[in-house]
Amino acid sequence: MSTGPAARFPTTVDEVAAGLRSARTATFERAVAAAVGLGAEGDRVLAELDDLRGWRAVTVTAALGDVDGPHGGQVLRRRVAARGPGTSDVRCAALLALTKRREDGVDALLADALDDPDHAVREYALIGLAAVGNDRCWDDVLRRLSATLSRVRTTVRGDDLSPVITALAYLLRHAHDDRARVEVVAGLLRRRLDRLDEGERQWLDAHWPAVTSGAASALPDTTAMHESVLRDPLLSRAGAR
Asked: What is the DSSP letter of 233?
């Protein structure tokens, strides 16, 4: 078991910067965690790693979502704009990071990503919209939810933020007091209840049981729906888990 400097948790900016360039995976990972703990200084050090590729780039991109500062936002926007083979994971991580940072203009960026050719990017854009997006995409998200529920899905996400849950959380948060919007969503769900997976049905039973019981007059608690999205580990920030 090593007791040398490589095994020690870095504490200074210089030590963190050196660790982030280390070829040792464990050293690199400790340095990423330490950078997050540095706050704005960590934002600067992580943002300087714009030349990384592969899983390290994804790790650093995700870490930028756990700090605030003046440098990371520009880097994250460049990563969302990346194209080509092997960029999907880093683009998804950048969307989540910008969502957690609540950067200015993130609404427009998420709205644009909702039409991205990459399926995974579209899903993560919807997660971001459910968390922090404005209502500019309401009609588009409704169409997407309808399309999702019109087909038999052969795969299920491994977490709670399925495309159905995120779409519902977004749509109902922005239905406000518009009962017509609420009834449109309720009618769609009632027609397609057989297309929901077990996790989605449980979420619906917890947050909007009126849909399955037929009590259309009982409106959902959209605050609770929104909070259930924000509590997901994908959207929680380091130190707040």
From this structure: T
Q: Which residues, at least 6 apart from 109, have a Cβ–Cβ distance to it below 8 Å? A: 77, 80, 95, 98
pLDDT of 156-179, one tens digit each? 555 578 999 999 999 999 997 788
Record the tokens describing residue 3, joined without a space: 């007791």
| Angle subtended by helix axes 163-173 and 198-207, to nearest 10 | 20
Q: What is the DSSP string of 124-183?
A: HHHHHHHHH--GGGHHHHHHHHHHHHTS------SSS--HHHHHHHHHHHTTTT-HHHHH
Distances from the Cα of 37 to the Cα of 27, 102, 169, angstroms: 15, 19, 31
pTM attached to this predicted model:
0.90
Contacts of 171 (CB under 8 A, 6+ apart): 138, 141, 142, 145, 181, 185
Among residues 96, 113, 38, the alpha carbon closest in space to that of 62 is found at 96
Q: Which pair of tokens denotes residue 162?
A: 């399925």
Cβ-based neighbours of 198, under 8 Å, separated by 6 or more: none
